[in-house]
Amino acid sequence: MMKKLLLLPALLLAAWHPAQAQTFVKDPAPAPATVCYARAEDMHTKLALPAAYLERQRTGRRGSSTAANIEVTYTGFTPQARAAFQHAVEIWESVLVSPITIRVQATWTPLGAGVLGSAGATAYYNDMSGATRSGVLYPVALAEKIAGQELNPTTAPDINARFSSSFNWYYGLDGNVPAGQYDLVSVVLHELGHGLGFLAATSYSGGAGTYGTPPSVYSTYMENLSGQALTNPALFPNPSTALGAQLTSGQVYFNSNLAKAVNGGVRPRLYAPATYSAGSSISHLNEATYPAGNINSLMTPQIGAAEAMHNPGPLTLRMFDEMGWFNTAIRHTKLPDSETAQNFTVQATLVTDGTITPGSVKLHYAIDNGALTVVPMTTTGGLSYQGVIANPGLNHTVSYYIAAADNETGRTYTAPATYQPSVSTVARYSFVVGPDAVAPVVQHKPLTYLFTSQLPYQLSVRATDNVGVASVTVEYAVNGVARPALTLAREASTSTFSGPISTTAGPLVAGDVLTYRIVARDAAASVNQAQTPVYSVNIVAFKPAQIGYTNNLNNTTPVDFVGEGFTITQPAGFSNRAIHSDHQYADDTTLIYQLLVPIRIVSSPVVMSFEEIVLVEPGEPGSVFPTEAFYDYVVVEGSTDNGATWLPVADGYDARLRPNWLSTWNSSTTAAGNSNGVGTPALFSTHTFDLASRFPLNSEVRLRFRLYADPGAHGWGWAIDNIYIQNIVTSVAADLKATGGLSIYPNPSAGKFSVRASFAKPTTGLELLVRNSLGQTVYRQPVPAATGQLDLPVDLSQFANGLYQVSLGQPGDAATRKVLIQK
């Protein structure tokens, strides 16, 4: 098994204490998933089913508070494969607790050689209400369990899973796997385990180790033999060779009191071989410590033939519990700053998977960093509690936190959650009592372009303030002419404000330039205001579809591309303009540049070619697109549904595609794995694709260039020049049909008319013929050469009225139209 989970940084960063903010991270393109490879040896081992599963089968109880609910959307599965997958699902359901349905998209499809399956979370969230640790990322299924609410759209999966349709599978549910076959239940159980949270998101390059920023919750428990946290930057900078040495030390452990309790007091040992295995190291239990047949062997890095593991094992389950699958969530809304001195009531509701330890729910507060006062919180009914902070008077800062414990684990939970590996103090909320002079904080990702088809566009802004936000407005103009300000509405119980940019106040058409700024005002007695810079947005639209397109990119008009992270420019050392990504491109990013001219597929092949330089991080040797070990990549994608879904024209690729690209990348690398190699014109190489091999005839395809970068390393990027797209027409008639056919005007005619035709490619040896109703040729005109649009005058004024047939082409290959002569 290999797994390099690529976690992305928060798109929205909390402006106050992170425990108050709920932010999510989701790759705009499918993120690399875990990949499970087959081990050739026959293991002949079998693990017993979990007691919770057996009890569930005995009682037939489903959907209770002691079980999770996992819904799977199956694509392409045979009945046998589906039954095995569902069996693994039911095992996980019996040992997890979650009030929120976990949704899985499962696809049965051919995969690479030796690949059994892959799976991964579709999104990662941090600082949800009830999070066990602050500032760390949780896979969405775990995040939703902790938050007690849907975070992903209910129409979106939480885990994507793909399994080989061509492997030598054992589909039985009894665990009696024959020699040479691989147990599908075990592989599904393992891969879903990664999607549920068994992931470290570490990487290694040139001796330097790295973990995700923010780190995954799993990685915050990583320790070395001496008990030092590997995510403590004071001890092991991220990235650094010091961290790399730890990740390859063979001595990495998961520091969990709950797991130690079922492991003889010993920390679970993680897989950390001396030769780092991308995607496999750290994100599995150690194979030698928990070999085949061990009750904890499911989440080790190898699955052999004749090996049945229908049990996650006590270590994995308790590690999951430590990360939050068993949890007491303290739901609390932080007190805002106040301009009034008074007693302040702190309210909280507890949601627990166990039972609350009597007397453990307490409010801890301090005035101006003084001594802590501890106030027992009293129940107001059920698991709702409150405590009072005595009037601190004006011009003071109050800090506080809430604590509670459960009887089952003995753990103490706090709100806000704490994650400070190098600091032992507990995190606190804080608020100020006194006159307010603090302006609101506005968070907004500005638009750079907007399609007319997106109108009305829902503009979204996050605005926060220490005493509360009174209003958020958008002041905007079109082509320099101001329009009425737009007041944004607050979305229920959130800090998000939104409203539509529409054509109500006037038209917005392609070519317009919209400028806007956001103004937020607070609710203080003396109003404080914050405003963003003025942003500029190009209004764009797709152009009519064409059967071909060429652009050497040297002319600044027309503007046929739109996107972010790319520009048409001429960097130093280059003799002409071309499309260039940011040089250098950033980690954790996706850059997209879209062609505004759709291509009509009217023949086969449809050749798309361009010259390019690709200096993006090379993946592991032998890695295949788009697995986690493929790292950064560039890809050309097309959409036939107006951009709703995008498919690769061909597999993505990186600097390994051309030897001179790879040597340039490797010519200057840093300890962190970044490359300082610079692109030059000599590195341009032509790349050719066939669009017709990917998209059906008579479809219209929108095309885009996409550069995906993981957190691991970055470099110079991508350059594209001399784009050529052309339907290759095999006959004159097909050429004329593809370009709109043959037309005659005026028609009817008094005898003089013109024949118009458009040709996609240069054509020679044509002849224009006119025949009467008896089929006799009455007019003949040779056309030695034709290209582009052709207009041929014809004079039949000396002929009688009637219907005539006009044809243009070659013998056996001509397009025809009829013309009525009416004098």
How would you describe the overall organization of this protein?
- The chain has 823 residues and is mainly beta.
- Mean pLDDT is 89; it is low at 1-32.
- The chain starts with 22 loop residues before the first strand and ends with a strand.
- It folds into five domains: 25-323, no CATH class; 328-433, Immunoglobulins (Immunoglobulin-like); 441-537, Immunoglobulin-like (Sandwich), CATH 2.60.40; 548-727, Galactose-binding domain-like (Jelly Rolls, Sandwich); 732-821, Sandwich (Immunoglobulin-like).
- The chain has nine helices and 52 strands.
- Strands 3-4-8-5-2-16 form a six-stranded mixed beta sheet.
- Strand 21 (378-381) and strand 22 form a beta hairpin.
- The longest helix has 17 residues, at 79-95.
- The chain is 10% helix and 39% strand.
- 45% of the residues are buried.
Key structural traits:
10% helix, 823 residues, Immunoglobulin-like, six-stranded mixed β-sheet, 9 helices, single chain, disordered N terminus
Tell me how many strands there are.
52
Number of domains: 5
User: How far is the first residue's CA from the last residue's CA?
Assistant: 82 Å
Radius of gyration: 33 Å
Percent helix among the residues? 10-25%
pLDDT < 50 stretches: 1-32
What proportion of the residues form beta strands (DSSP E)?
35-45%
The number of distinct helices, counting runs of at least 4 residues, comes to: 9
The quaternary structure here is single chain
Give the overall silhouette: globular
The biggest sheet amounts to: 6 strands, mixed
Query: Mean of residue pLDDT?
Result: 89
Structural class: mainly beta
Strand order of the largest sheet: 3-4-8-5-2-16
